[in-house]
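Course exercise 7: structure representation. Students receive a sequence record and must write out the corresponding structure in token form. The form below is the worked example handed out in class, using Transmembrane glycoprotein NMB (558 residues). Read each field label carefully; the graders check that inputs and outputs are placed in the correct fields and that the protein name is recorded exactly as given.

STUDENT ID: A-19
EXERCISE PROTEIN: Transmembrane glycoprotein NMB
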Amino acid sequence: MSGVRHHLGFLLLAEAVLCAAATRFQDVLSYGSTSATSYKKLQGWSSDQNTWNEKLYPFWEEGDPRWKDCWKGGRVTAKLDTDSPALVGSNVTFVVALQFPKCQKEDNDGNIVYQRNCTQDPPAAEDQQVYVYNWTEWIDNCVWENCTSNYSHNVFPDGRPFPHHPGWRRKNFVYVFHTFGQYYETTGRSSAKLSVNTANITLGKHVMAVSIYRRGHSGYVPIARAKAIYSVTDKIPIFVSMFQKHDRNISDSIFIKDSPITFDVNIHDPSYYLNNSAISYKWNFGDGSGLFVASSSTTSHTYTLQGNFTLNLTVQAIIPVPCKPVTPTVPPPTPAVTTGASSDSSAIVESMEDNPDGGCHIYRNGYYRSGISVVEGILEVNIIQMTSIQMTESQAENSLVDFVVTCQGSLPTDVCTVVSDPTCQVSKSVVCDPVTVSDECLLTVRRSFEEPGTYCINITLGDDSSQALASALISVNGGSSYRTTEGVFIFLGLLAVFATIGAFVLYKRYKQYKPIERSAGQTEKQEGLTAYFSSFKAVFFPNSTERNPLLKSKPGIV
Ligand SMILES: *[C@@H]1O[C@H](CO)[C@@H](O)[C@H](O)[C@H]1NC(C)=O
Ligand SMILES: *[C@@H]1O[C@H](CO)[C@@H](O)[C@H](O)[C@H]1NC(C)=O
Ligand SMILES: *[C@@H]1O[C@H](CO)[C@@H](O)[C@H](O)[C@H]1NC(C)=O
Ligand SMILES: *[C@@H]1O[C@H](CO)[C@@H](O)[C@H](O)[C@H]1NC(C)=O
Ligand SMILES: *[C@@H]1O[C@H](CO)[C@@H](O)[C@H](O)[C@H]1NC(C)=O
Ligand SMILES: *[C@@H]1O[C@H](CO)[C@@H](O)[C@H](O)[C@H]1NC(C)=O
Ligand SMILES: *[C@@H]1O[C@H](CO)[C@@H](O)[C@H](O)[C@H]1NC(C)=O
Ligand SMILES: *[C@@H]1O[C@H](CO)[C@@H](O)[C@H](O)[C@H]1NC(C)=O
Ligand SMILES: *[C@@H]1O[C@H](CO)[C@@H](O)[C@H](O)[C@H]1NC(C)=O
Ligand SMILES: *[C@@H]1O[C@H](CO)[C@@H](O)[C@H](O)[C@H]1NC(C)=O
Ligand SMILES: CC(=O)N[C@H]1CO[C@H](CO)[C@@H](O)[C@@H]1O
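STUDENT ANSWER:
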């Protein structure tokens, strides 16, 4: 009896020793971190308890001196990117890209070559490309079917043969991905892409690690490792961008009263998991206006009160899924994979309901909350009058023009004028000045034009949080006085029809305000000139964002 026990103990011990000796995927790939003890199987992946062929695929620790010689001409680095966060059930995609040492690149055949003209002293003959690794040569010496000695090399670390799809022999790198206690292996060129379905991955943050090997003469050589953190969530990942026409700074959460704000919801769904879902958007703008339900991702809201508000958005997706069988079947546990009860993320969060249309659905929500400050701002700017100022002692070639500008909303603290070509696109000069306006928004901006011609002028009034602009097209005749007298301005003829009546009224109304003090040397040439109401910007530049660079140049006459 005791003999049997001894025997058994010995066997167990031997097994333990054997286990310790065999390298497992977990040892090579887990980066020293302990992997999950319980997990569900990922489709197409294998357990990291499998044995790793360390003879063909050597394993080196991080500080191993052999890393220095694993690649000719320097170290290869790998960059692993992910499109996480991923909604549970959707795919998360990883892209790993190899970065070779300076002046090396992959050619069309998958070989690594030195780039021409990259180094100061070319390493060889000028018109011949020089190989870092001429793998084509290695392969061509040996045809797949009858090359038995090499055949044994075309396997993954777990002994599985490489897939033989077209072009497989031009793939000289082996990528082994590891996450969630499982691995996935593939061959590839200098970059590889991998999609993983997250249905079986527990919610939260996880590490994806990848080890990359290159073809070698008697096996594979490790060249780089990389890892990235990705997260799986049961909340729809959303981002809301807000836009308001006269807002000065789009990123400061300060918006203007009485002007519509456009909210645009972006759902992060790179794998199109929600393509066939019904998505609704429930808005609470926090100003007591109630709950708005929209089916469009874009909505707009106008705050009519000043103050701080909390915006609440709930996005709901109703995702059609295949119905589960009525009697729940317990799937047999997969060998080497322990199924943890706690990891069943989907069962906890999803509610499955029968629908009138007969299908089954799961409901997922996404939440967004943001504080918003609503302040007074400049809502509109109008150029109500343009006047040519003539110099009498006139060697002066410059034409001076006064623009009378009004605005609605709060009072401006700065004014910028941009003079550009008649298409309003090529800016010729930008002048910005601080202004002080008391109680009524009415000011005169004087600008000089050196050359005769047609110009587009943009006048922007701004305060801390807002800015609005008005555009006008003006034609400046020669600087000499007699020529200026004959109708100086050609305004946009199209609009003149609409504008003249309004402009006339405004002209009458504001005529008495003349904040500019006139020197004796100047006479005002107003006869024969027409003033125009100029809010045509909305008609002609509907897509304009109206954000001008507020560059400070030479001081202007405000
Ligand atoms: C999830 O796990 C189950 C059983 O463990 C398996 O049948 C299924 O293929 C897995 N699904 C995915 C997407 O990995
Ligand atoms: C490399 O340099 C040579 C002369 O220095 C030039 O003729 C050739 O066009 C260059 N090749 C490339 C790809 O720039
Ligand atoms: C690389 O291999 C190809 C194919 O065997 C051969 O034509 C070429 O000359 C080789 N280049 C070098 C530099 O060895
Ligand atoms: C085996 O390889 C040789 C060249 O090394 C080739 O001529 C021959 O056709 C190959 N045999 C088969 C069956 O592919
Ligand atoms: C999701 O990933 C799986 C592999 O895990 C792939 O077979 C499937 O085509 C992917 N689906 C989408 C929509 O990308
Ligand atoms: C806009 O607001 C953000 C956030 O308050 C700030 O960091 C940034 O400097 C502002 N930009 C300008 C141009 O004022
Ligand atoms: C999802 O929709 C987008 C655009 O509507 C389309 O480009 C994409 O192919 C669709 N994907 C799937 C998996 O249906
Ligand atoms: C709004 O919040 C800002 C800081 O975020 C604060 O300075 C301001 O006083 C608040 N205004 C009101 C009306 O509560
Ligand atoms: C916003 O939503 C949160 C929960 O998501 C809720 O607690 C809060 O009361 C909501 N606020 C408003 C103003 O609706
Ligand atoms: C002038 O304003 C218009 C919008 O009214 C805009 O499209 C144009 O780009 C602006 N021009 C310059 C030079 O800023
Ligand atoms: C790529 C590779 O391993 N090539 C080898 C194939 O087998 C021949 C003969 O055994 C070797 O000379 C090659 O180096």
